[in-house]
Amino acid sequence: MLKVTNGEVYDPLNGVNGEKLDIWVEDGKIIAVGKGPSDRTPDEVIDASGAVVMPGGVDIHSHIAGSKVNIGRKMRPEDHRGDVVPKTEVTRSGVGYTVPSTFVTGYRYAALGYTTVMEAATPPLGARHTHDELNDTPIIDKGCFTLMGNNYFVLKFLERGEQDKVRAFVSWLLRATRAYAIKIVNPGGTDCWKWGKNVEDIDERIVDFDVTPRQILVALAKAHRDLGLPHSIHVHCNNLGVPGNYKTTLQTLEALGDMKVHITHAQFNSYGGTSWADFRSEAPKIAEYVNAHKNVTLDVGQVVFGEATTMTADGPWQYRLHQLTGNKWVGSDVEMETGAGVVPYTFRKRNLVNAIQWAIGLELMLLIEDPWRVFLTTDHPNAGPFIFYPHIIKLLMDKDFRDEVLASCPKKVRERTVLAEIKREYSLYEIAIITRAGTAKALGLKDKGHLGVGADADIAIYPKDSDPEKMFSCPRYVLKGGEVVVKDGKVVKSVEGKTFYVDPPHEDWIEDEIKEDFERYYTVSWANYPVQNAYLPRSEVVKCG
Ligand SMILES: [Zn+2]
Q: What is the pTM for the complete model shown?
């Protein structure tokens, strides 16, 4: 038994806001809070005096494993060269920066106090690869979202108006890929990319099927609802990265009515103007919608000035970014399922468009009133690597610091965003919500993101400091499943994390329904396709319904 004592506890899911409380841990779980068992003395006491105690961080959207992450690793030797991580007595070697190797990914997340991370986009055919790498990633718990918004079967059943088959297929695919949630990227648009095309409107018919992005979104949202999945549909909207795309984002939200939806990296979809010349923020309009509609959550995809590697299943957008920048590009087509692209990118403070993008992410976090529905991400490594989370926390908590950075951006940023006028500063309680409590709740992970009795003993202890960036960069201790894995910002023990997946209600007839098509169209055999028997040595099924 272990006791964390004398810390200032921030546990929003249990309404604890900076109170001094002792936390008792045994067998990887929290067994008591406040008053511990009177008849026993702890074997180990962790002194948290002068420190803030929070649940381990929960990242709702990051790219850490699978095919396109690997394309990123392969195409960016220059990214790794300057960030070689030697082995220590307890950790293995690797490389870091925007697309770190699996070991470094796990260590670096843990070293920031993050203990659960979701891989946001897995092509079904690549799921086995994703799981192999998730297994390989130390310390953190994880899960993956399966790409479905351009899937042949979803589109075929939808064209025939067979919603029951869409639902049954979604259930089958989640099981077959051992995944956690439905991911939708540029619905219909990535399918059109197979013909060099895209969609520009949610009511545009796609090339291969007589369906529209709106129909895809609604059908998958209904499937999500009917299957009782723990996390809502996770949507990367159409027209990502395009000036004026806030209208598409609002249309997407309106199309879904009051059904649950998570909009991911919303910064990239809150753009105004008609071209790059008059590019401006429309974050206030997105925030206004979100404030009025409780069915919506979003994560931000906050831009960090510096190096990034963009990687997304939005194949047509990546080609466009390659043309805009002249940077190297890899396109990856995944049979009948999805397609991806990878392009390195540098966000520059003196570039007006980049500086406006930076401001938009902050505006979203500061203008959306309910911290339970807006989450901190950099869409790692798309808008910047996750290692900059402490820096972003400082931007949210310190208006003077924010103004200082804003002052070093081009002057026009102040005309095209409202960031300068926003006075709000986040509290530690709110930071705990947007980085762990809120994300765990949105994901439906009941034992994560809080410090109540029964929760997983994933605990981050940060030394109090007037500089939030310093404080959140270097936790005094991080506990994962009750074991001390980080001390003074350094990994002192490497443990193995587990993978979460869902087990939705299943109808056997769908297997016969799709088998024939698999044999006809896929280049792999039916027998090789499902990863139902994938090697998942440590996993936990999260209940549906
Ligand atoms: Zn993403």
A: 0.97
Rounded Cα distance between 191 and 115, Å, is 35
Q: How many CB atoms sit inside 10 A of residue 533's CB? A: 8
> What is the per-residue pLDDT across 373-388, written as a single tens digit (0 to 9) for each?
999 999 999 999 999 9
- Residue ranges of alpha helices (H) inside 241-314 are 246-255, 283-292
51-55 and 459-463 as β-strands: parallel, antiparallel, unpaired?
antiparallel
CA-CA distance, 119 to 377, in Å (whole number)? 12
CA of residue 12 to ligand 1 center, whole Å: 26
CA of 443 to the centre of ligand 1 (A): 16
Whether 448 and 458 have beta carbons less than 8 Å apart is answered as: yes
Structure tokens at 163: 């919603």
Residue 416 above 60 pLDDT? Answer: yes
At 224-259, the pLDDT tens digits run 999 999 999 999 999 999 999 999 999 999 999 999
C-alpha of residue 381 to centroid of ligand 1, in Å: 8
- Compute the distance from residue 491 Cα to the ligand 1 centre, in Å: 27
Give the total residue count for the chain: 545
Interval between CA 410 and ligand 1 midpoint (Å): 27
Going by C-alpha positions, the residue among 178, 58, 48, 184 that lies closest to residue 114 is 58
